[in-house]
Design goal:
7% of the residues lie in helices and 52% in strands. The protein is built from 2 helices and 9 strands. It has a 9-stranded mixed β-barrel. It has a single domain, classed as Lipocalin (Beta Barrel), CATH 2.40.128. The chain is globular.
Length: 129
Amino acid sequence: MRTIKLFWVGILFGLAACASLPKKEFSNIADVVEGVWGWSDTNDCVENYHEIDISNNRKRMTITFRNVGFASETDSRKKFEYQILMIGHNIISTKMDDDLRVDKFGNPVTWNLVLLDNKNYCWQRGVGA
């Protein structure tokens, strides 16, 4: 089982993958993160798992929830669409579509999916938050 963690305003939220997958090369983050995931320490793999899909051209990322996911206390959706800004060794930097939030400099908020290992990732708010 893979685990995902979410870092947001100093609070850690855990996630877990819903399937045991063969170990993939860490050098290809896009292939490693694609698949079905859920919050750790919950029944999300049955009740509200989410699936990450990255476009073939590596410019778009979609996260689709079985039921709904939350971008904030007032923003729940079944599907989240992201523009991929950059892919690094263990990070995918994104901008969520239709996200009106801005950082302290007035720039659109960005989100980094940080791959911790082949079975763990976390979300980190981009620089300037």
